[in-house]
Amino acid sequence: MASIIATANLLKVNFWPLIKSRQTFLLTLTGMAGYLCRQSAPLDWLQFLGLLVSLLLTISGCTVFNMLLDRDIDRKMVRTRERPLASGRVSPGAGLLLGSMLVVVGMLVAATLSWLYFVLILTGVGLNVVVYTLWLKRRSAWSILWGGLAGGTPILAGSVLAVGRIDSLGVLLALVIVCWIPSHNLTLSTLFSEDYLEAGVPTFMNSYGGTAVNLMVTISSLLVAMLIMLVCSMLGLSGLVLAFMFVASLGLVSLGVVSWINPSPKLTGFMYKYSSVYMLTSMLVLSIRGLVG
Question: Helix or strand or coil: residue 115?
Fold first, then answer.
């Protein structure tokens, strides 16, 4: 029993942080929402389980690869220097093995569900690991746009698995995430701009200044709010739900405008947290709609 507990603690301390559980679960939730809000009753529980497993594994594997490739950057940043690969608690070889196993198994599960779903998941892996992390992250502040494209693939893949094709509503769902991720990352990089500067990672804050960042966050928030409301309307959600989402969206846009007009670290931090809760809530609303009809 003692050895089992010790092993569990080792996994919790050294390997669980490698998958960034909150980020992974939120992205998995977007894929779940994309599937549930598009599927027709009765729910195919076996297919739904395959969706969750394939997304959890591939997104977790991508996150491990991100940490593996960025371990030298992470060592230079106060926020990330204690991550398992950066601190040396987990070896690069172990990280490579874990990331590879997660992605390969996840892709194998995806391949059993739908060829188009598989292609989209593979595209997301390539955009995230190769284009964003390996190629552009250290070269350009605009890399966040590619990170946004990668983040938009799970919800599009979920929609495609439900309806069997890429359609306008599926693209709109993906655009919600594509527009949200850059603004979310912009607030984070603003809060830790000194860290990123020390690590030599180009960010909008350090490249273009706070005014440009706050303007982009405001525009992004407005786009996300408009897209969410459009999606909810196209899905035929009730007036009460639409009213709730309108109020939540108004809060997001208002925070963006206020942070643009009167920026402050405290407001930026609140904006970062609110945008996370907003997206979580939006995805839960879409998921519940799919479950209750």
Answer: helix
pLDDT digits over 132-170, tens only? Answer: 999 999 999 999 888 999 999 999 999 999 999 999 999
Closest C-alpha to 186, from 227, 218, 139, 233: 218
Which residue bears the tokens 């963006």?
256
CB 156 within 8 A of CB 51: no
pTM for the predicted model, two decimal places:
0.94
**Do residues 185 and 177 make contact, with C-beta atoms less than 8 angstroms apart?**
no
Phi-psi region of 257 (alpha: psi -120 to 50; beta: other; left: phi over 0): alpha
Contacts of 222 (CB under 8 A, 6+ apart): 253, 256
In order of 66, 76, 88, 210, 293, the CA distances from 204 in angstroms are 20, 19, 30, 8, 42
d(CA 27, CA 11): 22
Q: Which one-letter amino acid corresponds to residue 198? A: E
DSSP of 239-259? HHHHHHHHHHHHHHHHHHHHH
